[in-house]
Amino acid sequence: MSDLFIELQGITKRFPGVVANDRVDLTVHRGEIHAIVGENGAGKSTLMRVLYGLYQPDEGTIAVKGHAVTIESPRRALELGIGMVHQHFMLIPVFTVAENVILGSEPVWGFGRLRMREAQQRVAELCRQYGFVLDPTAEVGSLSVGEQQRVEIIKVLYRGAELLILDEPTAVLVPQEVDELFNNLRQLVAQGKTVIFISHKLDEVLAISDQITVLRRGRVVGTVPAAGTTKAQLAEMMVGRPVLVELAHPPVEPGPVRLDVRQVRVPGRGTRPAVRDVSFAVGAGEIYGIAGVEGNGQTELVEALVGLRRITGGQLLIDGRDVTHATARAIRLMGVAHIPEDRHRRGIALPMAVWENMILGHHTREEFTHGALLNRPGIRGFVRRRVGDYDIRVADVEAPVLALSGGNQQKVVVAREFSFAPQVLVAAQPTRGLDIGATEFVMRQLLAARSSGMAVLLVSANLEEILSLSDRVGVMYGGALVAEFARGEVSAAELGLYMTGAGRTGEARAG
Ligand SMILES: Nc1ncnc2c1ncn2[C@@H]1O[C@H](COP(=O)(O)OP(=O)(O)OP(=O)(O)O)[C@@H](O)[C@H]1O
Ligand SMILES: [Mg+2]
């Protein structure tokens, strides 16, 4: 373990109004899994982009294997054996696994049948060597999220990377896929590769890494070995004070039904429905949790409930009114808020300013207008309060949202959707990408929403979150709701069984 691989010294990276990395020192040894943790906006992704040649540091030095280097581009990073696994997959769905892997590293004219056969063999070999379960001839569009991630990792290995940077790789994975990824990572380091791993899930960090470096507001707080470190210690290092994650779930007498889903059917790709005759009702003052492995219809269900997808069978009622065929706008105006799972596609407009995103879809409200004009001071006050309440790390609310860290982008969406006194809140993966402080805050907000009489539908792949917040839990599998439990009636392990279709005999997978 004494084999030095990466040495960053005094790395400083500034953006207008922020010091994203402030004299950061980081040492990574060959063959270790080195985690980087820290609050949203602490500077983790920025530091990795510096190391991968996407950003140039303003100050500081980088040494790779003992030699001082300048990493002016990702190409140079790869030459030095440094590879980064993309968080937003950049794969081409209609190409096969092997085609995607060689794409970009081969000249176009080399894309012949012979090269293809060679590439397939090489990919199969890499899979065997590191224990990846992946068919090189499969079309990428037919793969699960976990499998697509494996393609991205193989792609980086194929280019000869010795160090793999994974920025929040587990944010998009379900528990089983996380286990599989960790097995792959362990095999990689056992064979001499090195991994830098970023995650907000401290249990994961402690389970997989050797060393953990904590960043806070751009600075290194310290590097500690995972062995002997507790979650509470890590959390305190990250936040700078002890963090208590104990949530009271006071009894609330559910009121009248607000969200009534009756035999709802939503078309999927091809002839199979994505959602098959799903029924449930959520009352005022109730949190209804839906657990499920991604790709079992939850996405389509949520989009249908907020008017973004066509409902072809059954009925959807909000506060007793039939909105089965209503538009997304009409549904929003009825007081239905939506925290989308894919914030880049549904939740925010990246090039628009933070303040604009904060009122997106609500800019015609009385408090934001002055006749035909925008009420600038009113908007500014509102945005300032939200930024404060949610501790959104932003230097200037006029800046485009794309300048925010991933977690802070999510906070903008969550802050907006909680803001306009909704009656019904449809929250899909609301804490994905959030740090522990922000996660706790959002969980408290969900409970406060419940206490104030909102009907909350919570869709999450995080079973801990589902179990600690929900009054009732439904499990979706193959587009159908296959089980429903009252609070306290089911464990995470049992939910897991239903989620993979094993909880009920004779239930065939339709998805
Ligand atoms: N391209 C950019 N332009 C301007 N500011 C940026 C840019 N990229 C990052 N920042 C700022 O730098 C700081 C660090 O951001 P970074 O993305 O590195 O955080 P992070 O630790 O990865 O957070 P998260 O956990 O939310 O992903 C933030 O204040 C962010 O707003
Ligand atoms: Mg980040």
What does this structure look like?
- A hairpin with a 2-residue loop joins strand 21 and strand 22 (480-486).
- The protein has 3 domains: 4-239, 3-Layer(aba) Sandwich (Rossmann fold), CATH 3.40.50.300; 256-335 and 422-505, Rossmann fold (3-Layer(aba) Sandwich); 352-420, no CATH class.
- The strands form 5 sheets. It has a 6-stranded mixed beta sheet, with helices on both faces.
- It contains 17 helices and 22 strands.
- With 511 residues, it is α/β, with parallel strands linked by helices.
- Magnesium ion is lined by residues 44-45, 167, 405-406.
- Residues 6-242, 259-503 form the ABC transporter domain.
- GO terms for molecular function: ATP binding; ATP hydrolysis activity.
- Pfam families: ABC_tran.
- It comes from Candidatus Segetimicrobium genomatis.
- Its main location: membrane.
Tell me the major beta sheet: 6 strands, mixed
- Proportion of beta-strand residues: 25-35%
Query: Do you know the CATH architecture of the largest domain?
Result: 3-Layer(aba) Sandwich
Task: Please identify the top-level CATH class of the largest domain.
Answer: Alpha Beta
CATH homolog superfamily of the largest domain = P-loop containing nucleotide triphosphate hydrolases
Dominant shape: globular
Q: How many DSSP H or I helices?
A: 17
Structural class: alpha/beta
Mean pLDDT, as a whole number? 90
The low-confidence parts are: 505-511
Strand order, sheet with most strands: 6-7-8-3-9-10
Ligands, ions, cofactors: adenosine-5'-triphosphate, magnesium ion
Distance between the termini: 45 Å
Q: CATH topology of the largest domain, what is it called?
A: Rossmann fold
Helical residue percent band: 25-40%
Tally of discrete structural domains = 3
